[in-house]
Amino acid sequence: MQILYLAIISISLLLFHNTNTIVLVQALTSPSDIAALGAFKASIKPSSIAPWSCLASWNFTTDPCSLPRRTSFICGLTCTPDSKTINQITLDPAGYSGTLTPLISRLTQLTTLDLSDNNFFGSIPSSISSLSNLQTLTLRSNFFSGPIPSSITTLKSLQSLDFSHNSLSGYLQNSMNSLAKLRRLDLSFNNLTGSIPKLPPNLLELAIKANSLSGSLQKQSFEGMNQLEVVELSDNALTGTVESWFFSLPSLQQVNLANNTFTAAQISGPHPDRGGITSRNNLVALDLGFNRIQGYAPANLASFPTLSFLSLRYNALRGTIPLEYGQIKSIRRLFLDGNFLFGKPPPGLVASGTEVTGSLGDNCLQECPTSSQLCSPAQKPISVCKRAYSGRPTSIPVVG
């Protein structure tokens, strides 16, 4: 039935009836692309295609690449300069509901496929691997399920991959590092499990937050990633120690490892490389909140000259707040609340006129001035603090 439907589409693009006369229409778009577009639209529920939407204008009695586009194919796709093939499909967020047809593989010149913010469901077809020219693949905010097809790793031209906010499951492919041109990877808000595999070496942005990843951060997973700027791995089940090699990644700027089960973090400050230039000085934001990190707050964080946001909230930190924290000129937001820190806060943090916001509350601090916004909420009861420090400490040092 589908073959017959596609044949009718192909014929209708060449012939149409006008005042009882068969008229030949000059075909620009390749028949294979037209058939693939027809199959793509046929896989979407007609009831989900609103009259004002892009797909409603896809009228196959007109050539998709013909110009000017007055009433048909007015949006949702673009053609190559020679008007013979489709090179981009970017749907509007109109609530389309349906599956992604395997026949999408016939659109071999596609460089962009963006179906974001709709209601597509079902699996991602493995035939997508035939789109060898694809540079941007965005299926964000749909209802795709099942595993990420292993064939994805054959898309050597891919630069941006966004499957976030779906229901994908299974493990990440170990061969993902073969995507040498990939710059942005976002798999956040899915049901992915297992450990982090070896990652593409030229990534700028990595986001796999809000999944069920487990295991520790392994050096071999991040090996050679000299351009990595953003790491978003919060809300998983990652554990172990965040080791010093991680903070040595030379381009690192923003790190979010909150809401995991890390028990320690080894942080060393920037140091000169062989040329005498500081190689680790780009860190702007670090979130290690809501883990199980024990020991002392790492004073070496004060060595990062551009650090603006720091959160170590709700861990199991003990000891005093390093005086260096009050000397970080770039810091604007600091969250150390929910630990067992004692002593006096550094004067530079609670002095009148400070620009630092955040919280030092819910600790065991003494003389935290109520006039300082940082001292809210209130400190822990003395009885809780005494119990926390009774007996011999068994904490794991943060600074390795």
UniProtKB/TrEMBL annotation:
Q: Which GO terms describe its biological process?
A: defense response
Disease resistance R13L4/SHOC-2-like LRR domain boundaries:
103-318
Its membrane topology, per UniProt?
Peripheral membrane protein
Lineage: superkingdom: Eukaryota
InterPro entries for this protein? Leu-rich_rpt, Leu-rich_rpt_typical-subtyp, LRR_dom_sf, LRR_R13L4/SHOC2-like, RLP29
Q: Where does the UniProt annotation place the signal sequence?
A: 1-21
Pfam families, per the entry: LRR_14
**What are the GO cellular component annotations?**
membrane
Alphabetical UniProt keywords: Cell wall, Disulfide bond, Leucine-rich repeat, Membrane, Plant defense, Repeat, Secreted, Signal
Protein location: Membrane; Secreted, Cell wall
Q: Which Gene3D superfamilies match?
A: Ribonuclease Inhibitor
Family stated for the protein in its record: Belongs to the polygalacturonase-inhibiting protein family.
The name under which this protein is listed is Disease resistance R13L4/SHOC-2-like LRR domain-containing protein
Which organism does this record belong to?
Answer: Vigna angularis var. angularis
